[in-house]
Amino acid sequence: MKAARKALDLSQEALALEASIDRTYVSGIERGRRNPSLTMIAKLAERLKTTPAALLTPTTREQMGN
Predict the structure, then answer these.
(1) pLDDT of the residue at 61
(2) Residue 4 neighbours by CB distance under 10 Å
């Protein structure tokens, strides 16, 4: 999610405002501390101009736990 957000040059605060959620919630999702609902993932994907599947797909070995 962070990569998609940065690709659009959005701050956590800007994304949170667009999605009508708290900035700390965006931060928590990006750090793996929060587990968003499927509805929230779809909402964030729409704001980030991507798909829910793309947000759920690990992009680096670190994200995959290796």
Answers:
(1) 53
(2) 19
